[in-house]
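ARCHIVE CARD
CATEGORY: sequence design from structure
SOURCE FIELD: tokenized fold
FIELD CONTENT:
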């Protein structure tokens, strides 16, 4: 686990069923793990322990500025780690009120991965013109 020295700016990423907090770490997008876990009604300590035991998991500590203006350390995971973790969450282990959001996240993720492998790419229907232009240039 690495610890970046600068405070990271948290940006909300909108998904079909809600949003997640993201930060850039070393030029790579990361998900702030605790709020994402708690948003689907799971125990952060238990999920962090599970994540810590996974060989594929990449995480780091980041300094974030909270709503009260104080700097706090948070765990961030790269997007690949977040998606792998998300796929392992059992929908029957979350509250009934949260289940539709979790399933929607999992479906959106699997659709994107499926389209990447079977169609040669995946485009988010909410992508901006700038994002689409950047993809075309790659």
């Amino acid at each position: 686990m690495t610890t970046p020295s600068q405070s990271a700016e948290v940006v909300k990423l909108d998904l079909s069923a809600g949003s997640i907090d993201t930060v850039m770490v070393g030029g790579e997008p990361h998900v702030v793990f605790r709020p994402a876990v708690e948003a689907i009604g799971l125990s952060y300590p238990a999920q962090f322990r599970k994540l810590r035991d996974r060989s594929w998991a990449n995480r780091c500590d980041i300094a974030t500025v909270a709503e009260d203006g104080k700097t706090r350390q948070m765990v961030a995971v790269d997007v690949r780690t977040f998606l792998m973790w998300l796929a392992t969450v059992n929908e029957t282990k979350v509250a009934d009120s949260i289940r539709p959001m979790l399933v929607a996240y999992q479906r959106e993720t699997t659709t994107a991965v499926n389209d990447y492998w079977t169609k040669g790419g995946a485009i988010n229907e909410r992508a901006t013109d700038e994002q689409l232009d950047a993809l075309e240039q790659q």
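CARD ANNOTATION: Residues 1-6 have pLDDT under 50 and may be disordered. The first helix runs from residue 33 to 39.
SHELF: design records, drawer C
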